[in-house]
Amino acid sequence: MNGPLGARLVPCGPRIDAVAADRVHERLSEAAHEGGWTGALDAAWPALAPVFAASPYLGGLARRWPERLRLTLETSPEDRLAGILSATDALTGGAEEARAPLRWLKAELHLLTALCDLGGVWDLDGVTDALSRFADASTRSALRAVAHDQRERGKLLSAADDPRGPIPGLFGLAMGKHGAFELNYSSDIDISLFWEPEALESALAEGVEPQKFCDRAAHALASLMQERTGDGYVFRFDLRLRPDPSSTPPVVAAPMALAYYESVGQNWERAAFIKARPVIGDLAAGADFVKALRPFIWRRSLDYPAILDIQSIKRQIHVHKTGEAMDAAGANLKLGRGGIREIEFFAQTQQLILGGRDPALRSPRTVDALAALRDAGHVTPEACADLTAAYAALRGLEHRVQMLDDEQTHILPADPARRAAVAALAGEGDLTVFDHGVEALLVGVNRTYGELFEGEESLSSPYGSLVFTGVENDPETLATLERMGFTEPATIADTIRSWHHGRIPATRSARGRELFTRLAPRLLTALADTGAADAAFRRFAVFFAGLNSGVQVQALFLAQPKLFDLVVGVMAFAPRLARTLGRYPAALDSMLDARFARAIDEDSGLVDQMRADAAAAPDFETALDAARRVHREQMFRIGLQTLAGHAGPEAAGRAYTALADAVMDALAPAAMAEAVRQGGVLPGGSVAVVALGKAGSREMTASSDLDLMTLYDAPPEAVSDGKGWAAGVFYSRFTQRLIAALSAHTAEGGLYEVDMRLRPGAAKGPVSLRLSAVEDYYATEADTWEFMALTRARVVWTDDPAFGARATAALEAILRRPRPGVDVAADARRMRDLMARERPGQGAWDLKLAPGGQVDAEFVAQVHQLKAAAGGGPLTVSTLEALAAEPALAEAWRLQQALGQVLSAAFDDKPDPEQEPEGFRRRLAEAAGLADFGTLKARLVEVRQAARAAFESVLPPPRDGD
Predict the structure, then answer these.
(1) Which end of the chain is more exposed for a tag (fewer CB within 10 A), N or C?
(2) DSSP3 helix / strand / coil % (the chain, rounded to 5)
(3) Is the pLDDT of residue 316 over 50?
(4) 279-293, 590-604, 641-655: least confidently modelled range
């Protein structure tokens, strides 16, 4: 059938939310009336109403872009798809020019495919084919845009129309469902990127290093595709289906990749390449690469151990990815028992075993592979028919789950109302009937899948037997626990048994206990491997007992062992982070977000989310809680990356400071709104928040407080129009509300301790200061230490950018104003000596106050800044930049900052690293770039001695009489 889509749509199911549908209809009716397409809307509305009633995402697309809906309805879907693909392929220019159009086209494609799917116009193949073809076109355009930018920068010399592709030698393989033209509605796309040295090197400008070029191109490509903007995103990018992704760059040289697969490639990687196809870049090079891999993928002969290893893929997936129970509520349609993954691996394991000798069995598409296996006699016609029908049904359900909010999820909502929305999109108005149908579907798939291979996983440990049945402790188990390093094995065994018996919420359900039976040996083994078994178990127990339901978390730990090991490491070495998990188990969810693993210098979008959530909050307290939730996740993220060695000390300092800046940016408007609510608007006034100390120098750690002051200006006679507050009163109230916003503890926790003592006249003055008063104070009263503190001053928020610029200029002018007769160095040395007497360093691990510690370096840095200011030299808030001429002090400061970042990420207090587990001491040494803890201690002594000598040279003790 041909013709416009609107005439071909049929209702997908009942209209479950008339209010939501009417809201969309109202907006569309206005647009249709203005555009002259009311007839088309009215004709299609019976089919559109159930869609927009159930899917906030699709309703939002229609409301935002009614003209695109009109075009979709009035055009045949085949022509509309062709137009979208053509427009995508026709995009020109660089990444910035392509960013918005790609997202608009993705929205159009999403609206088209959803309506064709739900309206009964396209079957599953039609839908997945359209999604996959758009993924092809959009990645092609994105790579062209990235290449365009590289040409503009003079790094890429090849012509834009080079037959070898936008970047000769660089190619990408579509993997997984994308490679098989089976992409789901809100899927990410798995792209494996490779480069051929000879072709690429000849296309690059002289001096351009190919690997770095490729990695930057990959980063730019992924960013262009997956960065969320106001227009949405195109596709989330996953580059991990490459050789050994934990230790290889994002783009792997093809010869290296082939050598890897030939020598150490694993069977799961063979399975992954069944669906691989060249999709972007140098397609001829990609085809050659895939051809070269065929002997690796399709082996003509397999010995029995090889067959068992292939079968272990099935067992591993079954063991590690089973997901939730067979109930429809919360069922994982992809990874859970009876889910899509079981059907896919039913086909793929048999393809790997049989396809080497029979090329007819090598289809990348799951349904086609099942049919080929049936035709060859390896699968019964009944099993093939059942699995094929189940596959189509599960994929359809998966799409409808994702259509609710455009989320990459495969889980049927546990919430009945949201699950009813999925049921409506699937044509069922009775939730009970829908649930029973889903459960029967999952049970049927799981039963067929379970017949493929036999085999049970081991529930013991490399350390020995672990048996927790019965009511008494098993002697062999106690011996195993003792070997693991637990000092009270009986207590551990009793606790584990109590969990088996359902005495905590996580194991209260039968499914929770079933999962824990599998998790327990892995948990105990992982805890033992940390070398801090007792402490790690104690902290894990707090976290585990705090879970409201343990089914999803345990399934997650079983499915993602790396994540599990990371959590266990936190429990062993990082009480601060462990406390976050213990008090807020939901913090674990943040680790599942793709943004969590991004480099902390990258913008993950969560900071913008915090600003938006705080701005949208209906009241002050809600804004505080919104900021604290995101802050907690980000502190956890930065701390974890710091502890894991993924972020260096400077990057961590910038990240902690950027987070603090964002918190102030989010909460200062809320504090201002609260001041206005209480006292009214102050006409003509402006205010700026100034950060000092580590916040000002962008060198914060996990334990840093905020040194702040606020500056304002207003007409002398200005008063608030509510209570008649003078400017000083108004801005003091604002400052007090800001302090409360930043320091108060709510149900969502705290943020920072706020210290206002570095402001002029702190002992007796107001909390907020008029800018002119600050200028007068520094001109007449300020001591040298106050000027030193001001060297790290930085405006972090203002309600008036012009005033913010004025404040910044005024602070610099204060620093540069001559101070005749003042010996800055002598004053600084006196203050440092006084500090040493009143606050001496507390041992070798006092990184700040010990001789040669960070305070010594910072005093010298600030003195240098004051001297540079007086002489008209450049100013910087960075300690390291200010110490550019003092290498010994800079090295000592950098080393101790690296140690301080790790220690503060892991602990609330100041621990003695000598007493911490070997694993943590090793991490401290790694943070310093040293081989072991003993070397670190020696190096710390050495650099401090050199730093103290440099300090004495720059700031010698004042002579008598000075």
Answers:
(1) N
(2) 60, 5, 30
(3) no
(4) 590-604
Q: Report the pLDDT value the prediction gives residue 40, as an integer from 0 to 100.
A: 94
Indicate the angle between helix axes 933-954 and 918-927, nearest 10 degrees.
40
CA-nearest of 671, 591, 665 to 632 is 591
Q: Taking the CB of residue 589, how many other CB atoms lie within 10 A of it?
A: 14
Question: What is the amino acid identity at position 428?
Answer: E
What's the average model confidence in pLDDT over 29-46? 95
d(CA 648, CA 897): 10
Distances in Å between the alpha carbon of 287 and those of 284, 459, 748, 756?
5, 44, 53, 65
**Strand pairing partners for 195?**
170, 253
Answer for the pair 171, 289: CB distance below 8 angstroms, yes or no.
yes
Gap between the Cα atoms of 69 and 62, Å rounded: 6
Tell me which H or E stretch contains 707.
strand 706-713
Phi, psi of 707 (to 5 degrees): -90, 115
Per-residue model confidence as pLDDT tens digits over 107-139: 999 999 999 999 999 999 999 999 999 999 999
| Contact between residue 301 and residue 269 where contact means Cβ atoms under 8 Å apart | no
Q: For 619-642, give the DSSP string.
A: SHHHHHHHHHHHHHHHHHHHHHHH
Lowest mean pLDDT across 93-102, 177-186, 522-531 = 522-531
Average pLDDT over residues 675-682: 95
Query: Which DSSP helix (H) or strand (E) runs through 22?
Result: helix 18-35
For 16, the enclosing helix (H) or strand (E) is none
Is pLDDT above 80 for 436? yes
CA distance 235 to 217: 17
Chain-wide mean pLDDT for the chain? 89
Residue 537 in tokens:
């178990």
Q: At 232, phi and psi to the nearest 5?
A: 100, -145
- Tokens 């991990």 found at: 240
On whether the CB atoms of residues 844 and 940 are closer than 8 A, the answer is yes
- Per-residue confidence (pLDDT) for residue 472, from 0 to 100: 67
- Of the candidates 708, 820, 812, which has an alpha carbon nearest to the alpha carbon of residue 769? 708
Give residue 281's region: left, alpha or beta (phi > 0; psi -120 to 50).
left
Confidence bin at 332 (pLDDT 50/70/90):
confident
Q: Identify the CA nearest to 146 among candidates 187, 97, 189.
A: 97
Is residue 321 predicted with pLDDT exceeding 60?
A: no
Burial group, residue 934, by CB count within 10 angstroms (0-12, 13-18, 19+): exposed
Element (H, E) at 687: strand 686-692
Q: Who has greater pLDDT, 719 or 573?
A: 719
pTM, rounded to two decimals: 0.54
- Side-chain half-sphere of 690: how many Cα atoms within 13 Å? 34
Residues ≥6 apart with Cβ < 8 Å to 439: 326, 327, 328, 331
Q: What are the angstrom distances between the C-alpha of 158 and each of 161, 170, 254? A: 8, 12, 20
Q: Find out whether 78 and 120 touch, Cβ atoms under 8 Å.
A: no
CB atoms within 10 A of CB 684: 11
Tokens 């409808």 appear where? 400
Q: How many residues does the chain have?
A: 962
SS3 category, 759: coil
Distance CA 650, CA 881 (A): 12
Whether 277 and 173 have beta carbons less than 8 Å apart is answered as yes
Question: Widest CA span of the chain, in angstroms?
Answer: 103
